[in-house]
Design a protein that fits this description.
Blueprint (H helix, E strand, L loop, with lengths): L2 H32 L9 E5 L1 E17 L2 E5 L4 E6 L6 E2 L4 E5 L2 H37 L4 H34 L1 E3 L4 E6 L6 E2 L7 E6 L4 E9 L11 E6 L2 E20 L2 E11 L10 E18 H5 L19 E7 L5 E11 L3 E5 L8 E6 L26
Antiparallel strand pairs: 1-19, 2-11, 2-15, 3-10, 4-6, 4-9, 5-8, 6-7, 8-10, 11-14, 12-13, 12-15, 13-14, 15-18, 16-17, 17-18
C-alpha cells in the first residue's frame, strides 16, 4: 500500500470518528428529555413543627409623658427677684419656687392701708355728726331737707370704707402673688425663667415652671389607625421598648381610647392612652415608645411557619394531595413520605402572628419536619439517558 493510500484510509476513519462524536452529542439532549428517572428529586426546604406560645399583636408608636403635669404661671407682672427651684428638683405643695420684686406691691399695700384708715376716720366723723343732729331733727329744729345730707353722709362714708378695704385686700393678694408656690408635690421638669427676667401677666398667663406630679407612673399617647382601633380594648396588655434601652421590655395597659379622630398623612388615627409603671426611673417624658398591643395569646400550641401552609408542590413530583379541602380555617402541610414522594396532611388553622400559625391535626407532632419551599437551584428535572455513567452515592441515597 502506497503512502497516498494510507493517508486516504486514515482520513476516512477520522471523518467516521468525528461523525460518530457529533451523533452522540445530538443524542444526549434527546435522551435527557425523554427518559425520566427518580434519581434527581426536587430539593426541598424544611421547617420543624414547634410547640410554644403565639401572640397576635398590633404595633404602633407613641410618646411618653408624665401621668399628671401642672403648668405654674404668675398672676401679676413684675421682675423675677430670685429663683428657688431648678430642673429635676423635688418640691412639696406650698414650697416657694420663685419670688418677684415686691417693692411696688408693698407700696400699693401701704397706700391701701392708708386709704382704709382715712375712710374709717371719715365714717367716724359722719356717725358723730349724725348722732348730734338726730335729736334736733326729731324735735323739729331741723327740717328733713337739712337732715338728709347728714344721714346719707354716714352711708357714703361706710361705702367708701368698704371700697378701700377691698382695695387693701386686692393689694395684699397681689403682694402674695409675687411669691410663686408649688400647688402639688412633684418634680420640676421645666423652668422657663431666670432671675432678673420680667414677666407680664395678661390674658395668657406665662408659664414659669412645669411640674410632674409623680414620675413613677408614666403615660403613653399612642396613635392607632382606624384599621386596627377595633381590636384595642380598655385594660388590654401592652409591651413597649424605648430607644435608650432597646433590649429591655416594659409593660403597661390601655387606660383610655379617645373618640376624637386625627388625620395624619391622610390616615385616620385615634389616640390611645397607656399607663406604665416607672419604678426604676428609666422612662423619661418625651421618649418615643415602640408599642405592641397584645390582641390574643395562645399557649402550648403547635406552630408552623406560614410558608409551609402556602407551599404548593410543583407538577410532576407525584405529591399525594389527599389532605382535604382548604378553607379559611383549614389547610394542609406537606411531608416527604416513603419513596421520597410528598404527602399532604390536613390541619386546622388558628391564630397567626404573620410569620407562624397555630395549627392542630391528627398527624401533627412537635419536631415533625414539613416542607416550607423549594431550594432556589432545585427544579423538577428529567433524567439523562446516560445517567448510569454517573457515580452513585454510597448506599444509593438521594439528596433532598
Amino acid at each position: 500500500m502506497t503512502f497516498k493510500h494510507r493517508l486516504l484510509t486514515i482520513g476516512k476513519y477520522a471523518l467516521m470518528a468525528c461523525g460518530a462524536i457529533y451523533l452522540v452529542q445530538l443524542a444526549i439532549p434527546l435522551a435527557t428529555s425523554w427518559w425520566p428517572t427518580d434519581n434527581d428529586q426536587p430539593r426541598y426546604l424544611f421547617a420543624a413543627v414547634t410547640q410554644g406560645s403565639l401572640e397576635t399583636i398590633v404595633s404602633s408608636t407613641g410618646t411618653l409623658a408624665a401621668l399628671e403635669t401642672v403648668e405654674i404661671g404668675t398672676q401679676v407682672s413684675g421682675t423675677i427677684a430670685r429663683i428657688e427651684a431648678d430642673y429635676n428638683d423635688h418640691v412639696r405643695k406650698g414650697q416657694v419656687l420663685a419670688v418677684l420684686d415686691q417693692a411696688l406691691f408693698s407700696a400699693q399695700v401701704r397706700e391701701a392701708e392708708a386709704n382704709v384708715t382715712k375712710a374709717r376716720a371719715t365714717l367716724a366723723q359722719a356717725e358723730d355728726e349724725y348722732r348730734r343732729n338726730r335729736p334736733l331733727f326729731e324735735k323739729g329744729f331741723l327740717s328733713a331737707q337739712e337732715f338728709l345730707p347728714v344721714s346719707t353722709g354716714v352711708d357714703t362714708a361706710r361705702a367708701a370704707l368698704a371700697a378701700t378695704e377691698a382695695s387693701l385686700a386686692r393689694a395684699q393678694t397681689n403682694l402674695a402673688y409675687t411669691v410663686i408656690r408649688s400647688p402639688i408635690d412633684g418634680t420640676v421638669i421645666k423652668r422657663s425663667v431666670e432671675a432678673g427676667q420680667t414677666v407680664a401677666a395678661s390674658l395668657n398667663t406665662p408659664t414659669l415652671f412645669l411640674i410632674a406630679r409623680d414620675l413613677t407612673s408614666m403615660q403613653i399617647e399612642a396613635d392607632v389607625d382606624e384599621s386596627d382601633i377595633g381590636q384595642i380594648r380598655d385594660g388590654q396588655a401592652v409591651r413597649f421598648t424605648v430607644q435608650s434601652y432597646p433590649e429591655k421590655t416594659f409593660h403597661g395597659k390601655v387606660s383610655q381610647i379617645r373618640l376624637q379622630p386625627r388625620t395624619i398623612s391622610n390616615v385616620v388615627n385615634y389616640t390611645v392612652l397607656i399607663d406604665a409603671i416607672n419604678d426604676e426611673g428609666l422612662l423619661l417624658p418625651g421618649m418615643t415608645a415602640t408599642i405592641d398591643f397584645v390582641i390574643k395569646r395562645v399557649e402550648k400550641a403547635l406552630l408552623v411557619p406560614n410558608a409551609a401552609l402556602r407551599f404548593q408542590p410543583p407538577e410532576g413530583t407525584g405529591a399525594a394531595l389527599d389532605g382535604g379541602v382548604e378553607n379559611e380555617d383549614s389547610g394542609r402541610v406537606f411531608i416527604v413520605g416513603a419513596g421520597g414522594a410528598l404527602q399532604a396532611l390536613a390541619v386546622n388553622k388558628g391564630e397567626t402572628d404573620g410569620d407562624r400559625t397555630a395549627v392542630s391535626g391528627e398527624d401533627l407532632r412537635e419536631g415533625l419536619e414539613v416542607v416550607s419551599g423549594l431550594r432556589p437551584e432545585a427544579k423538577p428535572t428529567r433524567t439523562n439517558f446516560f445517567s448510569f455513567l454517573r457515580p452513585q452515592r454510597p448506599g444509593g441515597a438521594s439528596s433532598r
